[in-house]
């Protein structure tokens, strides 16, 4: 997904059509009273290392677990006294300062599956880890959706430069999308949500990378978003049995937030259970 394709998506929202093939799938919503009319899902394919994306910069255990991969405080983008972003995410700081970017930490599901295929399937169908459901959660429904996939986040080795480049691409494209949608007047009714099949292990490996993990942090952006930190910050003293971050927010809570904002009143019929939306939207 290059910059031109991202800007084509912005044009699709402004003009009502999409012309970039497989990178974009749109379904139309009839819910005129919804606070959000358009949803952009950005998949960080491979399992994004959330611990170096949204950094517990004040936790000394972070540097113990990652003597080579840890981001130094002088390079990190400070959000508050305890939390920072990877320096490659600098283009997103304008959205953060405008209170238009929410960061939800500790997102995942119970008994996390470390298989790429199975974990993507769980996220796509909004199922439990031991449940197999037919069809995606978005198929159960009436939203205008643009789906984008960025590949390359399975960083088992040589992560430092690879991850920095991936996050720089993500931040640049999202910043460009935001600027274009602000100019077109569509930003106030757009919600952007990142996904990834899992996070990564807290401890770096011998190859200069990280292995498959569990919980992760995710971004939700839009003109109607109430910015800030939500969810459960990483507890590096309470890792799961395989060294992943513990889950504090079920991923279907993000979906319930989306469905509620898009006017889908009975999200439980789509998600298979009741999940309370996060208070991240202003309207």
TrEMBL record:
This is Twin-arginine translocation pathway signal sequence domain-containing protein. The lineage of its organism: Bacteria, Pseudomonadati, Pseudomonadota, Betaproteobacteria, Burkholderiales. Pfam families: DUF1501 (PF07394). It comes from the Bacteria. It comes from Caballeronia zhejiangensis.
